[in-house]
Design goal:
- The chain is an alpha/beta fold.
- The protein has 3 helices and 4 strands, in the order E-H-E-H-E-H-E.
- A 4-stranded parallel sheet has the order 3-2-1-4, with helices on both faces.
- The longest helix has 15 residues.
């Protein structure tokens, strides 16, 4: 059985925890399928590096530091992504938080 890959051209994806691991892999995969990707991670260096990987491969991405425990920061990050890339169509809430802040 073959797997079909969705065409994500014209779509915007927002991925939290996208600086490494599963989030990074998903951000890169969505970009390879044509999505513009907002790469959000607590580590700004990692978020920027993944966004750079995407843009270096010819895609569209925005890297941003984001602490998902801060609702105002989440709202601001989504607003920035929508301003730069367009309305968000896909969200992958991958960031994990262990214990109290």
């Amino acid at each position: 059985m073959s797997q079909l890959s969705p065409d994500l051209h014209g779509k915007v994806a927002f991925v939290t925890g996208a600086g490494s691991g599963i989030g990074r892999g998903l951000a890169l995969r969505m970009a390879s399928l044509g999505a513009a990707v907002a790469v959000a991670d607590l580590d700004s260096t990692s978020a920027s590096a993944v966004a750079h990987e995407i843009t270096s491969a010819g895609g569209y991405a925005l890297g941003r530091q984001l602490d998902v425990r801060d609702p105002a920061a989440v709202e601001a990050a989504v607003a920035t992504a929508e301003s730069a890339l367009g309305p968000v169509h896909l969200l992958f809430a991958n960031a994990g938080v262990l214990g109290p802040a």
